[in-house]
Amino acid sequence: MNKQLINIKDRIEERSKDLRSSYLEKIKFSSGQSKSARDNMGCSNIAHAFASCDKAQQDQGANGGTVIGIVSAYNDMLSAHAPLKDYPDVIKNSSEKRNAIARVAGGVPAMCDGITQGEPGMELSLFSRDVIALSTAVAFSHNVFDAGICLGVCDKIVPGLVIGALSFGHFPIAMLPAGPMPTGISNEEKSANRKKYASGEIDRS
User: Percent of the chain having pLDDT more than 90?
Assistant: First the structure.
């Protein structure tokens, strides 16, 4: 490995040593608690958690069945999120075939910089990452999950989901993006069209 990279790695390890130890202790404690989290819940709590499930899943959830929490950043404004619209139902159906229960634990806000660039809404762009992290943690805080799946794409949404999910590092959480998308037209063509628009050769139509 490059010597400079090793030095950077060592500095990061040293700087984060105390915080990392504290985090690992928290995760270790949560891991011990979570093994019987639903067993220690009151009947009313369990009833609320699975009230909208069918009878079979209610029994399964109350008696130690595997429960997967889904956190989705889907909305109609982000074109990159379009495939995620149907993912929760696909995950639920797939989980049911494998004797597990998948539940949408919560949704998080997500904004498209492509829409807000140059507009006042862009001022909220970076702040939205913290809101997403908090929303993710709130969703998983129901404390009935054995695993989680986060649905989202983009440079603030995925970090926000990861930051929130790390509060629950004692159980496995998968990050599930929507996959690559085509650019539409090339950058060269975009640039040429902008020049034509600026010179009045073409209009918005």
Answer: 52
